[in-house]
Amino acid sequence: MTAQAQTGQWRHLYPHIVIFKEKAIDTTKTPLTPEMRGYFIRFERIKQLSHEHFLLNDMGVQNLGVRFDKKSELYEGLRDKIPDQDFTSILIDGKASVEFIAQEVNAHNANNYLYRVIQNNERELVGWTKPSQFKTTADGKYQYAWLGKFAYQPEQILRVEIYNTQKYNEQDAVTIDWRKVVAAKVSATVDYWSRGFPIADNGAVSRPFYPMEKYTALVKGKEVPIIPPALDFIKSISSKDLRLRFADSLQKMTFVIDNGQRIYNYKVSLKRNATGLKDSINLGESNSSFELYKEFWKTPGKYQITFTPKIHRHGGEPIYLLRNLATSISFTVLPPADRRYVVSVTWLVIIVASVLLIAALVIVYYRSRQKHILLQQAQSKEIINLQLGSVRAQLNPHFIFNALAGIQNLVNKNEMEKANKYLVRFARITRNVLDEGNKELTSIQHETDLLKDYLEMEQMRFGFAFSINTNAAAVDQQVEIPAMLLQPFVENAVKHGISAMKDAGMIRVDVVKNDNTLLLTVWDNGNGFEAAATTGMGIKLCEKRIQLLNSIYKNTTILLHKGRENNGTLITIELKNWL
Question: Coil, helix or strand for 428?
Answer without folding.
Answer: helix
